[in-house]
Amino acid sequence: MDLDTTRGKHAFADIIRAVENGEVDILVGTQMVTKGLDFDKVGLVGIMSADNLLSYPDFRANERAFQVIEQVAGRTGRRGFKLRLSQLIRPSQTDTTVAEALALIRRREVEPVLAAQVFVTMPPYETPAGRYLGVVHFQKLLRYPPSERLGTLLDSEQEPIDAHTPIGQIHRDLATYDLVALPVIDAERHLIGAVTVDDVLDHLLPDDWRSESFLS
């Protein structure tokens, strides 16, 4: 969508209608698509060569780049449609040691995306678990002695999400903090599951995206 493709009297409206009706899966455009549009089921927004926005000979280039990125990011996740929640491995308690946590996430049945961190809660420790306390990432576990307790290593700044968090916010949280999973809590902050990058891909891509036929 740009000035050339919307010159006709009804060209702009026709493009918008095609997207709304599901006739168009991908919309490519200039800054015309960054604001004022509200579509269902837009799960991913990308900016080509976004760093070029910072190269304009204008002292306000940084500010304008931020505005464009913030505006276009707002086109996604506007209706809050839900993702599938991954089944958690058993949450840990604050007295769990680093050695015990590593043994937990190294089990063969644990998905790699869930083995990248250990969620810590109050009892009970079966899903839905007790009150969410924080997370300890795998890289941090490797930097501490086996006897260290998880309660002293908690990352409590990473805010969990809830089951109604917009998909766009989930994208931004995963990308901004370089994460592969986010804890999901209920209204009482009980840990009820996790959303992983695999869940996001399952949501965005066709059902058969994991199959060899799709990849070929």
What is the number of helical segments per DSSP (H or I, 4+ residues)? 7
Mind describing the biggest β-sheet?
3 strands, mixed
β-strand amount:
5-15%
The sequence of SSEs as H and E is HHHEEHEHEEHH
CATH architecture of the largest domain: Roll
The CATH topology of the largest domain is given as CBS-domain
> Termini distance?
30 Å
Share of residues in helices: 25-40%
Average pLDDT for all residues: 80
* CATH class group of the largest domain: Alpha Beta
Could you describe the 3D structure shown?
The protein folds into 2 domains: 11-73, no CATH class; 98-203, CBS-domain (Roll), CATH 3.10.580. The chain is 26% helix and 11% strand. The relative contact order is 0.14. It is of the alpha+beta class and 216 residues long. It contains 7 helices and 5 strands. β3 (161-162), α5 (167-176) and β4 (181-185) form a beta-alpha-beta unit. It has helices at 11-20, 61-73, 98-105, 138-141, 167-176, 197-204, 212-215, and strands spanning 117-121, 132-137, 161-162, 181-185, 191-196.
